[in-house]
Each structure stands twice: as C-alpha cells, then as structure tokens.
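Much of what follows relies on a compact textual record of a protein's fold. Think of the row as the fold of the chain written in a discrete alphabet. An example makes this concrete, so a full record is given next.


***
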Amino acid sequence: MIRPSFHSSPAFLARAIDLGEADRRLTFFTRDAGVLVTVGKSAWRSRKRFGGTLQRYVLLDIAWTERPGRMAVLSSASVNRSFWEIVEEWERVRHADHLLEIASELFPQAGPKPRAYEVLLRGIGSIANGESPPETARKVEAELLAIGGWGPDLSRCRKCKGKESRSYRFLPSEGGILCESCPPGGGDPLSLGAVKTWRALQAGEAAARGRLRIPAVIAQELRIVIPGYIEYCLGKRLRSLGGM
C-alpha cells in the first residue's frame, strides 16, 4: 500500500463547493503548493476538526494528505490571521473576492507560489485596513500579471517603438500599447499618465507602492483596461467582476 504524503502551508480559501451532505470540495491558494483542491471530510458536521475556520478572508494554516491519483484530503485548518473587517462593506467584499479569483486563475499550476502569495496577502490586508478597494485591486492585478509573465509591454509603442506620446491605445492582442498613428485601429484609450502609473504598478517596488496614489481619472482608465486584459489572457470572463 502506498502511504500518503503529508503537507502544510499558509493559505486562503478561494472556493468551496458542497459534496453530498457532509463533505466539501475546497480550493485554496497556498504559498507552498499554489492552487490546491482538497476534500474536507465531514466539513459541514465536524466542529472538532475544523470548527468555523473554513471561511474566506481568513489566512489559514492548513495541512493535507496526498495519495497518487486521488484528491488531496484536508486534515487540519487553523486561523493564522483574520481579515474580517472586509465583510463590513460590500465594496471590500467584492474586491477581495476578485483578488482571490485572479490569483487562482493566473497561477493554476501546482507548485510553490511565494511571490504571488505575498502579493495576495498584502492586497487582502490593505483592503481590510481600509485602503481603497479599487486602487488596491489595480496594484495587485498589475503585480500578478508581471509575476506571471503576462506583461504587458508598456515601455513604448509596439509598432514604431516611439517612447513618448501624450496618449496611447491598449490592444490586448498586441500585448501592449500603440500610439495614435500606428495600425491596427481600435483598442482602449490610455493617457500617458495611465501608462506611467501602470508601469509603476508593474514594478511592484515596496517604496513606490507606499507612495503611489492613483488619481480618480487614471483609476477609471485602468479600471476598464487591466481587468479586461486579465480576461483576455485567461480566455474567459471573471466571475467576481460583475459591475466593477
């Protein structure tokens, strides 16, 4: 008989689906294993095993077992840190849900994801601490795209290579920006200020994150373009966006 292997990691609960009357299919975003799908045996009934820990907006310390060819089984979960301030406002809730979704969707492969995990943890903490949920979402989106190698290239026009223009167009199919005169047409308009802001968010430097405040007009530009680019990269709509 093949013995199960034992694992543990800090994690956020991203999704939970009931399996029958007692079990639950639980999807976590973990630091040490990336996206992890487990079955929580008797997760509905066993207060001794899990209590009320299996909640969103809580940083958990989880342990699980794995056997070849079988779904991982959650063996324990305890609260590391709570971010329950998020549930006080709907805007916080839907943006926190958005961060959990995009982290899981942009990094679906198994394996350690320490950088993406730290960005997610920082974003959830910022929302809980009262920072602007939309602004926090744009920062996390830009960093996760950069970490995952999705880009985009915002250094210059993708066609003529011109470095500076007062306005650009963002075309997901081009993986970056085009100036007004270069083909093809279409795309979402982006001001130079919006492009520079996105560049700064991509860099993800701690000092820049602390200082950077996104003006309302630029936030509105990025609110349309960055989530749209994520959906283009994934090839599907994001469930959490709704009317965002």
